[in-house]
Design brief:
This protein has a single domain, classed as Gamma-glutamyl cyclotransferase-like (Hypothetical upf0131 protein ytfp), CATH 3.10.490. It has 4 helices and 6 strands; from the N terminus they run βαββαβββαα.
């Protein structure tokens, strides 16, 4: 199986904390979805938006055990769904992706979420929280 990630899970350190192992990955993007910050937290959500394009990471070789861990990590605000994902070569593949459930869309801001900003300013503290959750 494959999983497209557009937020904190794009970062290898977060992926390994959550899943417990590294996985093969490639750059990819989804069309007609926008990645925005959520109010009051440091991570994003994905919402449908015609014409939008969101870059991310496509992880390959994801198994059922990985998905169980990822489902717990994402929590009830997100749903896992199959979406078409495009690679840099413009090849289209299907992959699981976590999108916000409808009741949580109102939490989205208009601010675009940046993995680079998150990594620079919030990653260290975020990893500590991830570690404490796994205990």
């Amino acid at each position: 199986m494959q999983l497209f990630c557009y937020g904190t899970l794009m970062l290898p350190d977060v992926w390994v904390k959550v899943v417990g192992r590294q996985a093969e990955s490639v750059d990819a993007f989804v069309m007609n979805y926008a990645c925005r910050r959520l109010r009051g937290v440091k991570y994003p959500g994905l919402r449908p938006q015609v014409g939008a394009r969101t870059a991310g990471t496509l992880y390959r070789g994801v198994d059922e055990r990985d998905l169980e861990r990822l489902d717990r990590y994402e929590g009830e605000a997100y749903q896992r769904r199959l979406l078409p994902v495009w690679l840099a070569s413009r090849k289209r593949e299907m992959a699981w992706c976590y999108t916000l459930r409808k009741p949580h869309l109102r939490r989205l801001t208009q601010e675009t979420w940046s993995a680079e900003h998150f990594a620079r300013h919030h990653l260290k503290a975020y990893l500590e929280v991830c570690q404490s959750r796994r205990r």
